[in-house]
Amino acid sequence: MTPTDDDPDLPVWDEDAALASVGGNRALALSLLKGLCATLPHELSLLRERHADGDLPGTAEQAHHISGGAAYCGVHALRSRLTLLEQRARAGDVNGCRIALSAVDAEATRLLAFSEDLS
Questions:
Q1: How far apart are the first and last CA of the chain?
Q2: What share of the chain is helix, strand, coil (3-state, %, to 5)?
Q3: d(C-alpha 62, C-alpha 85), whole Å
Q4: What is the DSSP letter of 29?
Q5: Cα 37 from Cα 49, distance rounded (Å)
Q6: 103 near 81, Cβ under 8 Å?
Q7: Distance of CA 3 to the CA centre of its chain
Q8: Contact residues for 68 (Cβ-Cβ < 8 A; gap 6+)
Q9: CB atoms within 10 A of CB 21
Q10: What's the pLDDT at 3?
Q11: What is the pLDDT of residue 67?
Q12: Which residues, given as ranges, of the chain have pLDDT below 70?
């Protein structure tokens, strides 16, 4: 069975997808992933700030922004959570955003822990 983007058991990093994005260059795929992880805390801080301000359009835009990088780097589990947050924000679902943001934070924590072991 191939995992789908809404699969709760998606791997933290899909190396095959990341390699496909960069023509098979593993060093480049790792470099991009590390770059994403380096900027992720700041990007998530902006996301949380927009959410805390009640700025649902800004929340949706920031989630979409982060999601693009996550997709390119093969980080589909995080992208899946960000997509749900974006959808909830665009729908005006304040409580759904809160729940989705919590899932984004949990997945980001998992990714950042994973990235510490990359070589």
A1: 29
A2: 75, 0, 25
A3: 10
A4: H
A5: 19
A6: yes
A7: 16
A8: none
A9: 17
A10: 38
A11: 97
A12: 1-8, 119
Measure the CA–CA gap between 74 and 99, rounded to whole angstroms: 24
Torsion angles phi and psi, residue 118, rounded to 5: -75, 145
Residue 97: closest CA among 65, 37, 57: 57
Output the pLDDT for position 118.
83
Distance CA 107, CA 44 (A): 11
Tokens of 17: 């997808």
Could you please report the per-residue DSSP string of 57-103? HHHHHHHHHHHHHHHHTT-HHHHHHHHHHHHHHHTT-HHHHHHHHHH
Q: What pLDDT shows up at residue 40?
A: 98
Q: How far is CA 46 from CA 49, 51, 90, in A?
A: 5, 9, 17
What is the value of pTM for the model shown? Answer: 0.91
**Residue 115 has which token pair?**
């990235």
- Domains of the chain listed by start with CATH number: 15-115 (1.20.120.160)
Residues 6+ apart with CB under 8 A from 17: 74, 76
